[in-house]
Design goal:
The protein has 8 helices and 8 strands. It is an alpha/beta fold and about 270 residues long. Helix 1 links the parallel strand 1 and strand 2. Helix 4 crosses helix 7. The N and C termini lie far apart (about 45 Å).
Length: about 270
């Protein structure tokens, strides 16, 4: 059995990013995908109980009929703070489809949210604004600057509905003063107002799996809107991975505070 064990534990989508990177590294080294990927110790902070929760979120790879044949090495870069124009989605998409297709439970949650909120994805703008504990990793776009970008895109798509996901209640409060009819998902637990707490520690332990499934479903919805607006980071990049590309997106490209590389940062990349 050609087995890969992935062990990274941090934020939910950080775990996803390193799992993906480990699979790609295995593929590059062995010129084939592993027969088994053991991620049972990942997402430990998101467990209700001590068990493997990988397939609570993602369909088992054995059930995905997707052949991935080696022709050349795939980039092993961690792109979360890069301009996503550098990502070769055509090469990465087969790995997303094989190992990160959403599970039936997550897909059911997604469809229920779409029906409940009467969402028309082709006539929607998905907005993701992350702040909170992410301030320890990157420069945070101000709420007002995010709303300025939202306005510039909404002006181009006046009939599109705004779908908003944020870890900050203050962002909802502010954007609703301008667009009171936004779609916001009441089901997901938010960061307490005025607090900076690393997820998921403000979520009751018995709700952590379901709340994480909700988050994956919501990010899938945002990624499949006609247009998506987001700041950089693991969640922003997974919005694009679920989308399959970064077409019709606005990404706020920013610098990782631990990165000493000199490059142009803190700008909007619009791909229309």
């Amino acid at each position: 059995m050609k087995k890969l064990i992935t062990t990274h534990n941090a934020g939910f989508f950080s775990c996803c990013s390193i799992r993906l990177l480990d699979i790609i590294k295995y593929f590059n080294q062995n010129k084939e995908i592993p027969e088994e990927v053991d991620s049972s110790v990942q997402w430990s902070n998101y467990k209700n109980e001590n068990r493997d929760i990988t397939f609570d979120f993602f369909e088992h790879y054995d059930n995905i009929d997707k052949k991935i044949l080696f022709t050349e090495k795939i980039s092993e870069n961690d792109y979360q703070f890069d301009n996503y124009n550098v990502i070769d989605f055509e090469k990465i998409n087969p790995f997303i489809e094989k190992y990160f297709s959403i599970s039936k439970d997550v897909n059911d949650i997604k469809n229920n949210l779409i029906n409940q909120y009467n969402i028309d994805l082709q006539n929607s703008i998905g907005i993701f604004y992350r702040s909170g504990d992410k301030i320890t990793e990157m420069n945070i776009l101000s709420k007002l600057d995010m709303i300025k970008k939202v306005k510039s895109i909404k002006d181009k798509y006046p009939n599109h509905k705004l779908i908003v996901q944020s870890d900050e209640q203050e962002f909802y409060d502010l954007i609703k003063t301008i667009y009171p009819d936004i779609i916001e998902f009441k089901e997901i637990i938010r960061l307490p107002k005025g607090k900076i707490i690393q997820p998921p520690y403000f979520i009751p332990q018995n709700e952590r799996v379901y709340q994480s499934q909700l988050l994956v479903a919501i990010m899938h919805i945002l990624g499949n809107c006609n247009y998506s607006i987001f700041n950089s980071g693991n969640m922003g990049i997974w919005l694009c991975y679920f989308r399959g590309n970064n077409n019709n997106t606005s990404q706020y490209v920013t610098k990782c505070v631990h990165d000493n590389e000199i490059k142009k940062t803190d700008y909007w990349q619009d791909n229309e």
